Amino acid sequence: MGSPATLPLSTFFNVSVVITPTAPPGPSFNVGLIVGSSTVIPASQRVRTYQSTSQMLTDGFLTNSPEYMAAQIYFGQTPAPSQVQVGRQDLTSIATVIATTGQLGTGYAVNDILGITQSGGSGGQVKVTALGASNAIGFASTTATASSGSTSLTVALGTGIQVGMSVAAVGVANGATVTAVAGTTITISIPTTAALSATAITFSGIVLISAGTGYSAANGLTTTGGTGTGAEVSITAIGDTPLQAVAACRVASVSWYAAMFVGTASGAGIDVDLESIAAFIEGANPRSTFFCSTGESNVINGITPNLMSVLKAAAYRRTLCVYSTTQGGSFPNNIYAAAQWMGQAMGRNTGNPGSYFTLAYKEAQGVGTEPLTQTQLSTIAGTADRTTVGFNGNVFASFGNSYNLLFLGTMSGGIFFDTTMFLDMLVADIQNSGVAFLVEQNAIPLTEAGLNAMKNVVAGACQRSQALGFIAPSGTWNLAQIGTGNGAINTGAPLPNGYAVYASPISTLTTAQRTSRIFPPITAAIILAGAGQSFSVTVDVQQ
């Protein structure tokens, strides 16, 4: 079974990160997740962990399973990751369910929970949200069309309507609002600036609360439970969307840090699916990252919109997008190019002193290089000195006839992958160290001594990050002053350790803060060690 859902540590120990404009453009931080739609892993389990591709074969994956092929590339990097998690996209879960016209039952109550009975299906449930006559589940639907500039529209809903339903149960679109419901008709007010064109109008009598697994789309399915009898439902669509699959894997396991998707696209198309996953990852908890790839010609031709341009416009700092094609079928595994980058990142992050790394210029395996011109490379990824950034994309290419290298390791928002990951590691260290300190103490006095003790915990996490090589060994703080009075971190002040920790004195607390046992906020000022990724050498020759 997957790990149980837990509450984030930020509930009571929050750490925020501010990356200034002058900066360069809970989980295990070395475990990747590959999400696919193969049925080897039960949907009820959702995620399994493997130490090798041979374990995947033993478990039932085939050599042509997308998850297996991606894992081959993932484990094929040097140094190799120690493990991978594989997630299940359940294509038999309920996606859309409606009440069956003419079978709305009697005697139900709002908030009744009804199980959906179908051979082979389990776990699907709906909740009653609206009632009609004789406490039947309310339901009706129709399609209405009005021309632009109309002010109102009266629609006859037909025999499906149940008398007594509330206006609040009606859903419309395009800014229209319901103004009256009378018997089997509904009056709708339409904004004069928009038309209500071929819009379905529904009285929603039920809502899906559990998608279950093992279902197929079908009409006239019986329900069980609740206070009434006789209601049926119709499943009109089944299957996790890619977003739902990744989100479910986040709930099932808090161990993975990086994810990629190799499953079945939704009707919206794979680019839209990848965009929705990227948006989810941006705010997911625990913090994580997303690796994806695209081979659309608009990218190398500089034509927008394309997947990379959309991700760049959204400024996603947790998504790394790779340009990769199948090159006429010569390199079919290039569709899984994201696994190459994810494997490099997870394999190199050992957590040992001095293990800080970048993804730029790493030699990689398992995917063919892209035959690009210099212009196309700049269009995708920009230039190494970041005077141009292109689409903030990435590519695996050949350089100098001898080197097959990853270029350049940037997230869609423009910062580098290593900055995102090592900041996440620092935040996690501060949170976990701080919570461990809270747990092990009988009490932390609301005094300068207590405050300094917690500041030392924060400083300890910074010191460990410096040992990795992420925080500089020393430097000068050139940003705005932090704090006031004794202990303030002034602009131009040297930071002999590469970091400093500040908090306002305990004396600045209000009575309400003291009563609520709130310490002054702690700020950690850090200077990143950074990494050189662009070099220029001049050779002066005397004859």
The radius of gyration over CA amounts to 28 Å
- Terminus-to-terminus distance: 74 Å
**How much beta, percentage-wise?**
15-25%
Largest sheet, strands/sense/barrel: 6 strands, mixed
Poorly predicted ranges: 20-25
How confident overall, as mean pLDDT? Answer: 88
Oligomer: single chain
Number of domains: 3
The global form is globular
The overall strand count is 24
List keywords for this structure.
6-stranded antiparallel beta sheet, 23% helix, 11 helices, 6-stranded mixed beta sheet, 543 residues, 3 domains, alpha+beta
Characterise the protein shown here.
- This protein is an alpha+beta fold and 543 residues long.
- It folds into 3 domains: 26-89 and 243-418, no CATH class; 94-238, no CATH class; 441-526, no CATH class.
- It is 23% helix and 24% strand.
- The protein is built from 11 helices and 24 strands.
- It has helices at residues 53-59, 66-75, 242-252, 270-283, 297-300, 307-313, 337-348, 374-381, 417-440, 448-468, 511-515; strands spanning 32-36, 47-50, 84-88, 94-106, 113-117, 122-128, 140-144, 152-156, 170-171, 177-182, 185-189, 199-203, 206-213, 218-224, 229-238, 258-261, 289-294, 319-323, 395-399, 403-407, 475-477, 493-495, 499-503, 522-526.
- The strands form 7 sheets. It has a 6-stranded mixed β-sheet with strand order 2-3-1-16-17-18, sandwiched between helices. Strands 4-15-14-5-6-13 form a 6-stranded antiparallel β-sheet, with no helix packed on it.
- Mean pLDDT is 88; it is low at 20-25.
